[in-house]
Design goal:
4 helices; single chain; mainly alpha; Arc Repressor Mutant, subunit A
């Protein structure tokens, strides 16, 4: 996508340059397979089609965060109850 958005041809040499610039060791076989898979693909159309899927992904993470907060509050409440019961045992 980086090459495409820069107006460059998506080919093996370009892909290798981008990966190496990012500090990634380029695997020639994987690059060749990716370029072959992209041959004939309208990248602009693929990006438009994929955009709603990508945008929907963060929404799924929100309930998980809410669950973690609820669990943390429950743990804090249990910890407070344990602390109070521990103090009560000191005073009989």
């Amino acid at each position: 996508m980086l090459l495409h958005s820069a107006g460059q041809k998506v080919d093996e040499a370009g892909m290798k340059k981008v990966l190496e610039a990012g500090g990634v060791k380029a695997d020639d076989a994987r690059i060749k397979a990716l370029v072959a898979a992209l041959d004939g693909v309208n990248i602009d159309e693929a990006i438009k089609t994929a955009a709603p899927i990508v945008a929907a992904a963060p929404a799924a993470a929100a309930p998980a965060a809410a669950e973690k907060k609820a669990e943390k509050k429950a743990e804090e409440k249990v910890s407070e109850e344990e602390a109070v019961s521990g103090l009560a045992s000191l005073f009989g």
